[in-house]
Specification:
Length: 423
């Protein structure tokens, strides 16, 4: 990449920050932080705003069968596209940058390329993938799973507040009837790049500004339903209780112990619903969501199996029925070495202290890696905070990340040969 092109690829900080603020303020009413969950009305309004933003940037837009919003910039050759982007849905009480930076930063990259007069050989596609965050349908990375062929058609019948997942996908313009086979075959995409906040403390604590990501953890996530028996809290002897919450407590503490003993895994029970949830009633039903993350597929599998065996034993001991309501599995994704090295080189031109990191968070890139060479770029999260209203990254670091993405796009476009291999 010439020094002249590098100098010309300068993101417009004011334009980027204004776009982030505009989208961040489209939120669900009466929710904490910046909440815009799929399939809420706020999410649909955000999508409408985003499509207009893409079109105003000179990109042609479409929505694929999975509900992914795609915007294309033409290339000069008949080659597969380079795909950049992320997601714009949030968790409950989320922040302003998770996923959003990757989508709006990708639009800014397309505008930077136009303003610098750079013509890529490959078409460039900016993507807002549908529903990356784990949602109440019990599925994460809905859009990117469908793109890669990891979407199960039976999921379409799952219902939330009377709305099936199929209907929710239709509401954003998708065609759920077409799901179940990959929407893109291997080789149909030349490479994928995703810009993201780190969502952890490493860059911030080390005083580093950029990182190339060399792998993304796999995730096993399951929803467990424990059915005991609600009874009077004062008159039921301890030995006669079928306490669903006490059983859940054993499962939670077991998960913590398993992952403390295995340094390459982390485990969390992040959601817990108790019924009837009264101070003087023994809990009759508990629904909990447990997840385990690791870069090692074998550790992921055997830790989940150990948890399930412990959960089964705890439930049997207390006379509580145990059901695995939903299980989703995302394997670890290791980035191709040539692409990580290339992205790292680009990052070091902008920040000579740039490092290489694995990602402890799941991302759409973990699905995309099954389609094409895939890499990510991280910028610092202040204090490591994320999935909360306090999530923050300095404006200077946001802009630096977008510049790194722009430079990486040009470098990848130049590095790929006609067969789609890195040179």
């Amino acid at each position: 990449m010439s020094a002249e092109i590098m100098r010309a690829l300068q993101p417009d900080q004011q334009r980027l920050l204004q776009a982030i603020n505009d989208l961040a303020n489209i939120v669900e009413p009466d929710t904490p932080g910046w909440t815009r969950r799929f399939p809420s009305g706020a999410y649909l309004r955000g999508r409408e705003w985003l499509r207009t933003r893409m079109q105003n940037a000179g990109l042609s837009t479409r929505i694929d069968a999975a509900g992914n919003l795609l915007a294309e910039r033409a290339g000069s050759a008949d080659l597969p596209p380079i795909l950049i982007g992320s997601h714009t849905d949030t968790v409950l009480g989320g922040g302003r940058y998770d996923g959003i930076l990757g989508v709006l930063g990708a639009i800014e990259v397309a505008q930077c390329l136009d303003e610098a007069g750079v013509t890529l050989r490959h078409p460039l596609i900016v993507a807002d993938f549908l529903a990356e965050e784990a949602n109440d349908y019990g599925i994460s990375c809905v859009g990117s799973r469908a793109l890669a062929g990891n979407f199960k058609p039976e999921w379409l019948d799952r219902t939330l507040n009377g709305l099936t997942l199929a209907d929710a996908i239709r509401a954003v313009g998708g065609t759920p009837e077409a799901l179940g086979t990959p929407l893109a075959s291997k080789g149909a995409v030349a490479a994928c790049l995703e810009l993201h906040i780190e969502q952890g403390p490493v860059l911030d604590q080390r005083g580093k500004l950029l990182a190339a990501v060399n792998g993304i953890v796999g995730i096993q996530r399951g929803t467990l339903v424990l059915q005991g028996q609600p009874d009077h809290a004062g008159t039921t002897p301890m030995e006669l209780r079928r306490d669903a919450l006490a059983t859940a407590a054993v499962i939670i503490s077991t998960l913590e112990a398993l992952c403390r003993d295995e340094p390459q895994a982390v485990g969390t029970v992040g959601r817990l619903e108790v019924s009837p949830n009264q101070s003087n009633v023994i809990p009759g039903t508990v629904t909990l969501t447990a997840e385990i993350r690791s870069l090692d597929a074998e550790i992921l599998e055997h830790t989940w199996q150990a948890l399930w065996e412990a959960a089964t034993a705890a439930a049997q001991q207390r006379g509580v029925a145990l059901e695995l309501l939903a299980l989703t599995s995302t394997p670890p994704a290791l980035a191709e070495r040539w692409l990580v090295d290339l992205v790292h080189q680009v990052c070091r031109r902008l920040d000579d202290g740039a490092i290489v990191l694995p990602s402890g968070a799941g991302h759409d890139s973990s699905q995309l890696a099954q389609l094409a060479p895939t890499a990510m770029i991280f910028v610092p999260s202040i204090g490591g905070r994320s999935h909360c209203p306090e999530e923050a990254t300095t404006p200077e670091h946001l802009v630096l990340g977008v510049a790194a993405l722009a430079h990486a796009v040009v470098a990848v476009d130049q590095a790929l040969d006609a067969e789609g291999h890195g040179q």
